[in-house]
TrEMBL record:
Pfam families: WbqC (PF08889)
Species lineage: Bacteria, Pseudomonadati, Bacteroidota, Cytophagia, Cytophagales
InterPro entries associated with the record: WbqC
Protein name as annotated: WbqC family protein
Length: 222
């Protein structure tokens, strides 16, 4: 599916049946705006790991700054399949991430309702980065009440009906250079000015049941 066809679907509000995605770590609002309305999300365990990507990092808002949380991986072998990337638990990263999330959102209105879902996944000590991201995305879709289902797919030629956004959402370029996400402000815990495109955690903990509506409104319809 071409970009033009994608936005034609958005404008007409007709369903986007399938979107091929990367499995990001606690994805950004841009990611969820891009998949808004999808019925099926195709993920590919054989896709290659990309350094300096959102595959192992996410952004949260603390009292005085925006913090990037990164998951350390075993070794530095570039371009290996995602399903082979192993998480380095020798660096005790879960404690750092959990402490950061609690510091950032512990007083957010919906923190106590949603945090246990994520805490349990962190505590499971999943060895595979790909599997960890898949579990986290599954929980996020559930909490957003999204009808989208995740399907593990094999490498090969995609149908012309599939919109492929793999490799497009990356930290090296601002979201404004892409056509997926138009920020819709909501009340955040810290700061005077709205900080767009943080981790989905920011929206879930701050907006609760309104998160799904905000994401729908944030999806660009050009």
């Amino acid at each position: 599916m071409t970009i033009g066809t994608y936005f034609l679907h958005r404008k007409s509000k007709s369903p986007l049946s399938q979107i091929a995605i990367d499995l990001h770590y606690l994805p950004s609002l841009e990611f969820f705006a891009a998949i808004a309305g999808a019925e099926e999300l195709l993920v590919f365990p054989q896709d290659r790991y990309q350094r300096q990507s959102y595959l192992n990092r996410t952004r949260i808002r603390l009292a005085n700054k925006v913090e990037t949380l990164s998951i350390p991986i075993v070794g530095r072998r570039p371009r290996i399949p995602m399903e082979e990337v192993r998480i380095d638990y020798g660096q005790k990263w879960q404690a750092v991430h959990l402490r950061g999330i609690q510091s950032a959102y512990g007083k957010a209105p919906f923190f106590e309702f949603f945090f246990p879902y994520f805490h349990d996944i962190f505590e499971s000590e999943e060895e595979s980065l790909w599997r960890l991201n898949q579990k986290l995305l599954t929980v996020c879709l559930k909490l957003l009440r999204s009808p989208a289902r995740i399907t593990v797919a094999e490498e090969g030629r995609l149908s012309s009906e599939v919109f492929d956004i793999r490799g497009q959402i990356e930290p090296g370029r601002p979201f404004s250079e892409r056509n997926f996400y138009h920020p819709v402000p909501y009340t955040q815990l810290f700061g005077v000015n709205f900080e767009p495109n943080l981790s989905i955690l920011d929206l879930l903990f701050c907006a609760g049941p309104e998160a799904g509506r905000i994401l729908q409104e944030s999806a660009k319809k050009q």
